[in-house]
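ok so i was messing around last nite and threw this chain in just to see what happens. nothing serious, just curious
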Amino acid sequence: MRKIINRYIFKEIAFPFIIILLVLTFVLLMGKIMQIMDLVINKGVNVFSIAQIIVFLLPSFMLFTIPIALLIAILIAMGRLSADNEITAIKTSGISLMQIFYPVAIASLITFILAVFISYFLVPQSNFATKRLLFNIAQQNASIGIKEKVFNSDFKDFLIYAEKIPVNRNYMEGVIISDNRMIGEQNTILAKKAILVSDAESMTVKLKLEDGSIHTVSSDLKHYRKIDFTSYEINLDLSTALANLNESSKTSTEMTVSELLERMKKPGLDKAAVRELAIEVHKKFSIPLSCLFFGLLALPLGIRSHRSVKSRGFAVGLIVVASYYLLRIGGEALVETGYLSPEVGVWTPTLVFALVGTYLLYMANREISFWQTVNVFLMRKGWKN
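result:
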């Protein structure tokens, strides 16, 4: 009988978990949809590359949506069972709350293992793969990396600014270029029109300029030279950018734990960089662990002794998630500014919610209703009639 009840409760959790996970992941993906649509419509990126970008983005999204989906799914499942008096019937049959917690614990453990795998392996690899894919796209269509009214420094020795980039056109208007190829001599190039043409084999992009001028100032600011041109070509070197796509150039979000620890041992790093790497190391484990303590919290918060709106589980879940992530963001900010150590800043929210979850589960197991306790406290303070 207990196996049947365990499977029943697990199914009650699994179905809303999958639905909520898909919905939340889709919502996060919608935050990137404008950039993705711009690549398709205005830049001509093919559908296969767009599909790759979406696949590479999913692990980083799922690392955050899995704990949230688990929490809300347990709250909804326990709330539904309580509202229909099924929890009461289960307890009447001789099954304790800790035995009811068994399928919840199994669901939490499964999501924890999945989150660890995503955090440790998939997120670093997918982030780095996204970086490489975007660079390859930019190499094939160099205009993708340049935006209107933004200074672009992706090319070696050049800083490029474009006043306007017409939609569905492969050229720029109102171009300003800072040319730093000559040591001790600053060249500024102005052109009415510029066209970028990429060459993947030579790892260069040729910039064809029309109707412009080259302004040169000596290092001592005593000599000035101006050259007008109707046509001028510049080879923009991409080899440096390609060379930077190696293991040492990875950012903290693109490294595994072993790579982060190895980078932290590298001599010459400033304290801010070490703190950033340490935060990422601790996040690799603290975020997946949220699955376990969310399970502790969700069971006692989801069980209620009276009927109420079934949407309450979703609302309570949002409050818990918002509280946790606000504490986590605040802790990380204090670590980055040097006010807290990485261990304290990153792990404090996890420990706080784990203790609260354990306390609430203990109260629920002793048949002490959390919500009744809150109501009594509010009535004693005169905050509720």
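not much to say yet. Residues 2-138+259-380 form one domain.
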